[in-house]
Structure formats: C-alpha cells, structure tokens
From TrEMBL:
GO terms for biological process: L-histidine biosynthetic process; methionine biosynthetic process; purine nucleotide biosynthetic process; tetrahydrofolate interconversion. The gene is folD. This is Bifunctional protein FolD. It catalyses: (6R)-5,10-methenyltetrahydrofolate + H2O = (6R)-10-formyltetrahydrofolate + H(+); (6R)-5,10-methylene-5,6,7,8-tetrahydrofolate + NADP(+) = (6R)-5,10-methenyltetrahydrofolate + NADPH. Homodimer. Coiled coil: none annotated. It comes from Ligilactobacillus agilis DSM 20509.
Length: 282
C-alpha cells in the first residue's frame, strides 16, 4: 500500500482548499508546532511537517525549545496560542522530557485547536463516535484502507499496542467503522494466537520486525506503524517485510506507508480547523 502516493494526492486537494479559503474568507491556516529538546528523530518529523505545510500554503510557526525549558514556560506558550485567533492548530511533539508532565501539557491545549486529537475531550468525543478532531496516525490508516477499497465493517481487526497516540484512538476509529476489535499489548498471552485471527492487523509497538509471516493469517491486511531507526541508520517497521509479504494480501511499507499519511492528516486537520474558524466551537 503506497502511503506516499496517497499522501501526495491528499496534499494536492488540500492546496486547493487552502486557495479557496483565501479567496472566500482571506484566511491562511496557521499551525503552531512546539518541539522540546533536540531529539534527532523528532527534528526530522518537524522538518517534514514544515515542508508539507509550505507546499500546501499552510503557515507553520515552529518553536524549538531547549530540553531545560520549564513546564510553566511551555504552558504559557500554549496559553498564548490558545488566545491567538490567527492560530488554528497547536501541536506539541511527544515524548516530552521527564521533568514535564505530558498530561498537563496535552490538557492545556484548547480542544478546538488540538490537531492531534489527544485532549481528553476530543478523545471522549471520538470514543462516542462524535469526533471533533481525529488523531493523525489512525486517521491516515483509515484513509489508506478506504483508498484500497478495504472496509473494516464486520472484519476481525487486531491492534497490537495501546498507546494514547496510536493504539487507543485506532480502537475507536475501527469500532466506529463497525469492525470487531481486539487490542493486544505487552501483557497479552499467546500473541501469535491473537494476531493470526486478524483480517486487518495494525502493529504499533516500536519493536523492530517483531511480527513475522508466522504471526499472520494468509490474505490478511497488515498495517505497519512502526518507525525504528537501526544502528546502521536503516529504517524498519514493527513487521518483518520479507516473511510477511508472501502471506499478507496487503502490507504498508516503512518508509512510505503510514508515516507520510500521518503528516497529510495533520495538514488536513489544520485546514479543517481553519475552515471552521469563526463558527461555533467549544
Ligand atoms: N508512522 C507514524 O506516523 C507513527 C509511528 N509511530 C511509531 O509506532 C511505534 C509505536 O509508537 P507508540 O504507540 O507511540 O509506542 P509506545 O511505546 O507508546 O507504545 C507501544 C505499545 O506496544 C506494546 N508493546 C510493546 N512491546 C510489545 C510486545 N512485545 N508485544 C505486544 N505488545 C507490545 C506496549 O504495551 P504496554 O502498553 O503493555 O506497555 C504499548 O502499548 C513506534 O515505532 C513509533 O516510532 C508512532 C506514531 C506515529
Ligand atoms: N504530538 C505528536 N504527534 C505525532 O503525530 C507524533 C508525535 N507527537 N511524536 C512522534 C510520533 C511519530 N510520528 C511520525 C510522523 C511521521 C513520520 C514519517 O513521515 N515517516 C516517514 C519517514 C521518516 C524518516 O525518514 O525518518 C515514512 O515512514 O515514510 C514518522 C513518524 C508522529 N508522531
Ligand atoms: Mg514526560
């Protein structure tokens, strides 16, 4: 499944919507990105986001804060963006340094500007199938499946991983799409027995190539969320491509699968918020 190609198509459509927003309302979508510390992987994401935004016509306001920044100063920056009517989306790159409370920061972002969909209000709405903001990675996966004509309705969907960023919101989106959902994690007994049931398997563990061909039902659709940088600089997923390829009907590559879709969905959410600005919010 070619996430890179689909992401290009999504971004081309967004570019048109951004032009229309300017013509009709003289609004430029603006996204504030906050990165704390100098984690090299995070810097790559921030750079990719900035590049995608530039192409579409979204303005990004990048804040690269030192790892030593205080929680109070970080919160103050968020409050400023909450108040600023020209900022439509706020994203704080996770994980944060240990001295900063991630929950406190996530909860400080105004739900109406929460492009990641991580605020408990947005997460709650999502689980009740009344979403305001959709987490980018799971949403990108749903759009990939749709583009390939794969409907989760009535299917056995197994999600490996239960993080707030990927696994949990993925559960909600799959349930909202009428799948029968099973969630596996590090305490799951006999993981293979569980993954082998899946018609659609979503893997988000951060364990390089942990899922192999022996873990898959023949013909399954396999979505690899993992992005693991090996010591030799090589990028691999959580799924072992060589052994899974021959067993699965579809597999998302790493790189070029879920990653580019995540960025495209971040752009989409920002444009949607800009389009809604001035309307009844929260
Ligand atoms: N492509 C993209 O857009 C994105 C990619 N990623 C990538 O996806 C991966 C996962 O990210 P994230 O969800 O943030 O990771 P977390 O570390 O937050 O969560 C990992 C989850 O996997 C579970 N897990 C870990 N080891 C095993 C195991 N051996 N068997 C079964 N379950 C296991 C954990 O279980 P437990 O809860 O019990 O600890 C946990 O729920 C990473 O590689 C990350 O880089 C993440 C976000 C976006
Ligand atoms: N608040 C927050 N929101 C996030 O969405 C978020 C986050 N924090 N912290 C980190 C994870 C990870 N993540 C990725 C996004 C894009 C790629 C991506 O574009 N990957 C490319 C290649 C990247 C490369 O070459 O390194 C690909 O898979 O083809 C990867 C990973 C978003 N995350
Ligand atoms: Mg922390």
């Amino acid at each position: 499944m070619d996430g890179k190609k689909l992401a290009q198509e999504v971004k081309a459509e967004l570019k048109q919507r951004v032009e229309e927003l300017w013509t009709s309302k003289q609004i430029v979508p603006r996204l504030a990105v906050i990165l704390v510390g100098e984690d090299p992987a995070s810097q790559v994401y921030v750079r990719n986001k900035r590049r995608a935004a530039e192409k579409i016509g979204i303005k990004t306001v990048d804040n690269l804060l030192p790892a030593t920044v205080s929680e109070a100063d970080l919160l103050d920056l968020i409050y400023e963006y909450n108040e600023d009517p020209n900022i439509h989306g706020i994203l704080v790159q996770l994980p944060l340094p240990a001295h900063i409370d991630e929950a406190k920061v996530t909860h400080a972002i105004l739900p109406s500007k929460d492009v990641d969909g991580f605020h408990p209000v947005n997460m709650g709405h999502l689980f009740m199938n009344m979403p305001h903001s959709l987490p980018c990675t799971p949403r990108g996966i749903m759009e990939l499946l749709a583009a390939y004509g794969i409907s989760p309705a009535g299917k056995e969907v197994v999600i490996v991983g239960r993080s707030n960023i990927v696994g949990r919101p993925m559960v909600a989106l799959m349930l909202n799409a009428d799948a029968t959902v099973t969630v596996a994690h590090s305490k799951t007994k006999d993981l293979r027995a569980v993954t082998k049931r899946a018609d659609i398997l979503v893997v988000a563990t951060g364990r390089p190539e942990m899922i192999t061909g022996a873990d898959i039902k023949p013909g399954a659709v396999v979505i690899d969320v993992g992005v693991n940088r090996l010591a030799d600089g090589h990028l691999v997923g959580d799924v072992q491509r060589q052994t899974v390829e021959g067993v699965a009907s579809y597999l998302t590559p790493v790189p070029g699968g879920v990653g580019p879709m995540t960025i495209a969905m971040l752009m989409k959410q920002t444009v949607e918020f800009a389009e809604k600005s001035g309307q009844d919010g929260y």
